[in-house]
Automatic annotation (TrEMBL):
GO molecular function: DNA binding; DNA-binding transcription factor activity
Protein name: LysR family transcriptional regulator
Source superkingdom: Bacteria
CDD domains assigned to the protein according to its UniProt record, in alphabetical order: PBP2_LTTR_substrate (cd05466)
Keyword rRNA-binding: no
Amino acid sequence: MNPFDSRQLLTLVTLARTRSFTEAAKELHLTQSAVSHSVKALEKETGQTLFERSGRYIKPTPVGEYLIREAAEILARMEGIRSRLSDVDGWGRGRLRVGASPACCHLLLPEVLREFKQSFPGCSILVRSDREALNLERLRGGEVDLVLSVALEREPVEVAACDWFTDRLEIVLPVFHPLAARRQLKIIDLEGETLHLYGNESRTDKVVLDALRSQGVRAAEILEVGSIDAVKEMVKIGQGVAFMARWAVQKELDEGSLVMRPVNGHTIERLWKIYWARQHQLTLFEETFVGLCLEALEGSVLAGQPG
């Protein structure tokens, strides 16, 4: 049996999406007769009717729907191969666009970016440092290739992801806070305290607030300062407490300017993921970057985190 003609498969998929010979012809820069001839050729080759026709109305048959799904996957793979060949042809030249939170950009990505640039010195890198929701919108709009984010509560169907790591949130206090003398704290100990959040629709804020509400705890005041560095500085001078991951505050813990205490009886964890567009096959650059992100966990401050 002869292999299918990729041009005929593209015509089939386009016609199925537009449901119109006229629109398919316009999109493919063909005549309506050419579109019709291409479909008839496929029907003759398969021995199956692929579309039901009623005047200007068309609808794929069950066999047609099967072939359309298979054709779409074949075309996507062919596009991926073409993209990868382009990478090889211009070895090391290209671009990589990444979206991540400010803390992630500042504390987790530098080593990954250094390793990546050693592998692809000619590849330009754009890192968009912003809140999770905005970075996901950029991904869906094709403005970035990858997003590093705390896992979404509801993931859009048009994005795919792999798990990156899991971290644990603990209570960060000024060294002179009365609670700093304890080895462990309970959520109820935060009743009446000033609590710092990150703001900007942060997923971390929701995780923290859900934990407090589950224990019936109310903070005296909630402050949103929009920056992890600002949160740390406010806590240092005694203006409240915060929930943070150890990797985000390790420097301050080492120098003794802040104290971190685990939450007894209530583990607060976050799953981090790497997101990309579901219909997009990862390029060599993107696959390498994802691999470096996963490898960077070993021997880092994240190595002792759960998950």
